[in-house]
Amino acid sequence: MQVNRRITSAVGLTLTAALALAACSGGGDDGDGGEASGPITFWTPHVQPERMAAQQDIADEFTEETGIEVEVVAMAGADQDQALVTGAASGDVPDVVLHAPDLSAWQTQGLVDSDAATAVIENLGADTFNAQALDFINIDGAYQAIPSDGWVHLIVYRTDLLEEARLEVPTSLDELADAAETIRQEEGITGMAMGTQVGTPSATEAVESIFQQTGCQLVTDGTVQIDSAECAQAAGDFATLADSSAAGQFDVDSARSTYLDGKAAFFLFSTHVLDELAGLDDDNPLTCAECGDNEDFFVENSDFITVLDEEFPAQYGTTLNYVIPTGANTEAAQQFVEYVLSDGYSAMLGTAPEGRIPLRPGIADNPTQYLDEWGTLPMAGSDQTVADIYGEEMVTGLGEGMNAVSAWGLGTEDAVLAGEAFAQNTLAEHLDALYSGTDPQQVVTEMAADVQALQDDLG
Question: Among 410, 422, 454, 437, which residue's Cα sits nearest to residue 235?
Fold first, then answer.
């Protein structure tokens, strides 16, 4: 789930001339004020064969309606940065890119057409989009992209195990850490399964997700703040959660398999787990002792915490946005984006509904139209929907959860620094010291020193 947010400065130095070339030799407008024409190219990070086929079907339906042909190209998020820089240098850019939220590097290099994005948002209605998602892509007072969909972290928990241990559902990070420790001591199984392996992307995500629960910030207005008292508190609770494991350090796969094996009380993961808990993912089968007789065991015995602490309603997650690059076939690209956010929206979300929660919940006359439709989309090739399995309240709760989606630095001038710290797993490199008993305040102080060094390098 991690996206590489880096653009090499050496290549970036070539862009001044290259973008002028791209503006002339890219698709461009049709130039005569007439109807937009194609073909256009669409880069998507949803590269799985079945999802590619579904996206091409949606593009074909758009072509039938408009006459504009669309080439759907698989382009993983980690590959998009360099590919777009290279394309801009040669004057050959895609027309639409579905991209992760940190657009600051692209924006500073002049790679995105903010006027084109703003026009789409205004045409569809800014008030029909998730306000938080709009903030993420608003840089220097202008929209750099158009929000599409996203996912958030959930804390999944075993209702039966909490009941047996006579534990209340946690409503703060301290309570979560205490509950996880109690489960480990009294039940002999893992309290919390989450990414904890030192220096890994899964641990980087877990650190940001957990630390935000105390109001901890990485950096604010250019000042590194990861050494604050709130962050030290979060670091201490993170150490307790990691120590609640009965199976050592986890990566993303081992954390998931531990929960699906019935050997963890809590589990931190994205909404992509919804189909897996229901036994709909053959690649991640249910292996718990009870699952052989009851394939609905986890659905019946799991519940979800979306916002842990209402005082700090930050829910780690990410958003995907449609970018129209500088030099693209602007009018045709705008028509395509408007189509996949209206007539083709539900079909596009349906390529992976458990991980593609709409960031345009509805239209002016029906503010929850697309969120409601999302709740009826079948998951993982089955005929079962989020609403069927988890109820309408879950659909509403996830929609509201996207209002609290948060990632350090996004939508601010600190986005580049936050992106570098994330991409380099800067904070997760210090977890070994935390696990070894180093005072949490000392650990976050050392984290802050490394983040400050990154900031100094960026200039």
Answer: 437
